[in-house]
């Protein structure tokens, strides 16, 4: 079992580290991601966000969604809708088409909001979504908080 990490020990600007933990994502009762190729973005006060290769997402699941956002570190993000098993999750994933320098490892990878899926697992453990409607952190027993995202934490 991996050792426990405090999100308060994560750096700012964020770090990107490879992970070989098995990531599974279920939507509409269908496994749409099953991979051991991911990277984790680790940023002070945030649970890790896992990015999986776009190619690891089942065929026909992804489509373009409205909206964009910007991260001072990673660059300009675009959003994706995921559809599977009769269920559609609009804007439930994001990616950086042209990541900023230092974040090139995110190219051709997507991050998924775990709270908008049926189930997300890391190394067999069910993920608890980060609170709030903007951040997409993946909380497991490996990480400790408190975490940014709950009411009153925006200024952290």
Give a description of the structure.
The mean pLDDT is 95. The chain is mainly β and 156 residues long. 0% of the residues lie in helices and 47% in strands.
Give the helices and strands, then pairings.
Layout: E1 5-6, E2 15-19, E3 23-27, E4 30-35, E5 38-42, E6 49-53, E7 62-71, E8 75-84, E9 87-95, E10 109-112, E11 119-122, E12 125-126, E13 128-129, E14 138-139, E15 143-144
Parallel strand pairs: 1-15
Antiparallel strand pairs: 2-5, 3-4, 3-11, 5-6, 6-10, 7-8, 8-9, 9-10, 11-12, 13-14
DSSP helix count?
Answer: 0
CATH-defined fold name: Metal Binding Protein, Guanine Nucleotide Exchange Factor, Chain A
Give the overall shape, derived from the CA principal axes.
globular
Q: Just give the CATH class.
A: Mainly Beta
Oligomer: single chain
- What is the helix content? under 10%
* N-to-C order of helices and strands: EEEEEEEEEEEEEEE
Mean pLDDT: 95
Gross CATH architecture: Beta Complex
Task: Give the strand order of the largest sheet, numbering strands 1, 2, ... along the chain.
Answer: 2-5-6-10-9-8-7
Q: Cα-atom Rg, whole angstroms?
A: 15 Å
Termini gap: 30 Å
Return the domain count.
1
Q: Give the biggest beta sheet.
A: 7 strands, antiparallel
Q: How many beta-strand elements?
A: 15
Can you tell me the CATH superfamily?
Domain of unknown function (DUF427)
| DSSP strand content | over 45%
Unreliable runs, pLDDT <50, ≥5 residues? none
Structural class: mainly beta
């Amino acid at each position: 079992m991996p050792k426990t990490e405090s999100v308060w020990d994560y750096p700012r600007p964020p770090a990107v580290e490879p992970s070989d933990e098995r990531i599974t994502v279920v939507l509409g009762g269908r496994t749409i991601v099953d991979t051991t190729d991911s990277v984790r973005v680790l940023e002070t006060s945030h649970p890790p966000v896992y990015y999986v290769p776009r190619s690891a997402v089942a065929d026909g699941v992804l489509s373009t969604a409205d909206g964009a956002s910007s991260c001072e570190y990673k660059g300009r993000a675009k959003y994706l809708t995921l559809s599977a098993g009769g269920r559609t999750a609009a804007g439930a994933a994001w990616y950086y088409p042209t990541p900023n320098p230092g974040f090139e490892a995110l190219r051709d990878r997507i991050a998924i909001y775990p709270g908008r899926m049926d189930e997300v697992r890391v190394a067999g453990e069910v993920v608890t979504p980060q609170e709030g409607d903007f951040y997409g952190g993946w909380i497991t027993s490996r990480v400790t908080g408190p975490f940014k995202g709950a009411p009153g934490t925006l200024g952290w």
